[in-house]
Amino acid sequence: MKNTYVYVVDNNIYINLTNRCSNRCEFCVRYYDKPIYGDLWIKDEPDADTVIDILSKDYDVSAFGEVVFCGYGEPTYRFDAIEKISSYVHSKGGKTRINTNGQANEILGEDISERISKCIDTINISLNATDAKKYDKICHSDYGERAFDIMLDFAKKCVRCGADVVLSVVDVIGEEEIAKAQTIADEVGAKLRVRTLL
Ligand code: SF4
């Protein structure tokens, strides 16, 4: 089967760089029986030049809303490629977003908040829950209950670097949890986005 590295949904271009993830979220689309956006499991991770080549041949990135690093895994495993692809997107007048679990600094073993704030226009971090225990129960991170604080620390550092940071939750958590999530977002200095569960 052909690898899908680039796909389009609702006038946004999505870049699928990896299947690796430090979480195993119970609601993750990759565990659905029927793929939502086609089969996004990839056999080989593309290098940045492969993706830039696809974008330059097939897409006018400035004509799309955003180029989004997302797919069936945690994109920051491929942060070096993200930086390079983002630089291309910006050089062509496009905008960038990342959908991330916020665990990049632990995954990569270094603080990338300053670098990611420079190359990504909107950093969308999945908050998912309002405390460490609830987060672990849903997301089953490799880092256990530490993952929640790792994610919030990353969010705060990106805000400090001047990034546009959005924390997201799904609407099924209920009004009380959404209100708590809003408080967390306010404390971090981020926006809150309440998503509808697919
Ligand atoms: S962090 Fe994202 S890719 Fe990873 S398991 Fe959760 S929803 Fe899926």
Bound molecules: iron/sulfur cluster
Q: Please give the count of helices.
A: 7
Rg of Cα set: 16 Å
Order of the strands making up the biggest sheet? 1-2-3-4-5-6-7
Strand content: 15-25%
Quick one: overall form?
globular
Low-confidence spans: pLDDT under 50, at least 5 residues? Answer: none
**Could you spell the SSE succession in H and E letters?**
EEHEHEHHEHHEHE
- The level-1 CATH class: Alpha Beta
Indicate how many domains the architecture comprises.
Answer: 1
Oligomer: single chain
Examine the coordinates and then state which fold CATH places here, giving the name of the CATH topology: TIM Barrel
Structural class: alpha/beta
What's the overall average pLDDT, rounded?
A: 95
The largest sheet is:
7 strands, mixed
